[in-house]
Amino acid sequence: MILPGDNSSISGKTLVIPMIGHPVRQVHMPGVLNARFAGNGIDAVMVALDLAPPALPSFVHMMRLSANIPGCVVTLPHKAAVSALIDEVSGSATIIGAVNVIRRTADNRLEGDMLDGWGMAGALAANDVAIEGASCWVIGAGAAGTAIALALCDAGASLVWLSDTRPGRAEAVAARFALHGRSMLSAGRPPDPAALSILVNATPVGMDGRSSPLDAHGLAALAGHCCVADVITEPVDTPLLKAARQRGLRTIGGNAMAEMQTDEVARYMGFDFDR
Description:
By secondary structure, the chain is of the alpha/beta class.
């Protein structure tokens, strides 16, 4: 058994699960997943690996040939790029155009899926935030934002707005969603913020501890029943969440989303937790 903070039990038999990103200082999942491994007597460890984008193809090749790496977790900025380097992606990951978890099969094939949306939808449900029939706004049309928008659509949201600072990006996602039967997704900012039930920041804005994707005027336009969520895990309390709470709004941080994904990530790689 590997105990949290104790590497004396790591041996040549230990399964190693990298979490790749650039940077990785903000990631939350390794600590949570390693505690799960320890609590279930599983000889495995997750290690965050700061991987610059040019090294991504070499990492994927190494992973394919490494017998003690059953899979990996993928975070910014690799989610879209890595999906083109593996052998198979799930249906939802195909719509999204990115993956955040990969598993290696017995014949060294690499399969990928996208669980960010599942994690945020789970965090909302765990905090008694109803998605069905809700009007939602997702800020950021990158991999995480697209995944969250898809999860909200599939969970029964009546309307999902998706915005991005890069021209045409949200529009391209909306067109792709429409081809797959998700016509409730609209590109752009919602014309009536007061009608929103859920707002999600799916951008890195706020990682510096100072900036926010929504100014005070934008927050003031939200109704009191709106829940404000953020995908950022470090800092835990982003400027957006602080300002929303000062307005009396419900908030959900990125760590809640990451923790909701943890068991599902492990199951995808073949682990099963019984407690």
